[in-house]
Amino acid sequence: MNAKSDISPDSVSSxxxxxxxxxxxxxxxxxxxxxxxxxxxxxxxxxxxxMLAPNSSNLQPWEFFVVRTPDLKAKxxxxxxxxxxxxxxxxxxxxxxxxxxxxxxSRMALEQWPEEQMPGIVKKYYSKIAPIHYNQGPFGVxxxxxxxxxxxxxxxxxxxxxxYSVNEMKVxxxxxxxxxxxxxxxxxxxxxxxxxxxxxxxxxxxxxxxSVPRKGLVTMIVAIGKRSEKGVYNRQYRFDxxxxxxxx
Length: 248
Ligand SMILES: Cc1cc2nc3c(=O)[nH]c(=O)nc-3n(C[C@H](O)[C@H](O)[C@H](O)COP(=O)(O)O)c2cc1C
Hints:
Belongs to the nitroreductase family. The chain is of the alpha+beta class. It is built from 10 helices and 4 strands. Helix 2 (40-50) crosses helix 8.
């Protein structure tokens, strides 16, 4: 990863806010794309920005499968139930959550710490705490034991309430991966490109086509390209925030 994440917080100004607003407000789920290709540099920049998404323990439990070759793309579009977004997009990216890479990524975090001195707390976290926190043990027995211990200790003080099972690890990885998918889509918009996140696909076929690792979860397939004239099907709307936002 490069130094782009080292941008000073002070460099964010009110102009940036207006630009950000434009990016967010002009992002739409686009269902029909033009034939215009997406330059490699745009795609790789957007993927770098996607990977700057906040993520649990910085364990980066995601992978991106970029599909551009016409033959594979056509097969993948078919597996996306023949949706127009998938059929017309010049690029499809499968955004895959990896609930199973935490051990390897803990090691990588220890090896790739970006400063000369690794704080003791960081070293302890990745070498001692993470291997207990994320490990559910054979058949999930460690997870069950941790949950039971948490229930007892939790009576007298706040304790983490998970992840305590293989399924909770799936949720754990999917949360961070979905944030990366959103970063990807906003980055594309900032570059003047469009996207459509899709969960409407045949996961078995997608996994086979892309050789997704056994424990990987295809969180979304993002169709990418330039919106065509009739690419947005309806006006954007959201429910009244008074129903959904609670100021306590
Ligand atoms: C997880 C997820 C899955 C989605 N799956 C599909 C899909 O399979 N096909 C599709 O056309 N749109 C899909 N969408 C797009 C939504 O329909 C769209 O975001 C929503 O209608 C709001 O419209 P907007 O994105 O233009 O604001 C999906 C969005 C998300 C976040």
